[in-house]
Amino acid sequence: MDSKKPTQKDYNDWKNNPNNWFLGFFYFNKQDKRILVDKKKEEMGSTVNFANPKTIVALLVAAIFFGTVLFSILHKKNLG
Known about the structure:
Elements: H1 8-16, E1 21-22, E2 26-27, E3 36-38, E4 46-48, H2 53-79
Antiparallel strand pairs: 1-2, 3-4
């Protein structure tokens, strides 16, 4: 892989390339090392780059955390 840092033009080209969007809203680009990426329409906010391994780890940690919290709340509710 090329070691030069991507330019803003590279970021814009990647964002506007329909091949980098799975089902139109899941961003997946192995060349783009960013975790957070602007959506196609910037006023709609940001999304995550599902091709970045750090994204997958962060989503798994968040799911485990919120799953544990939800389980704890429901478990206490059933006990009390």
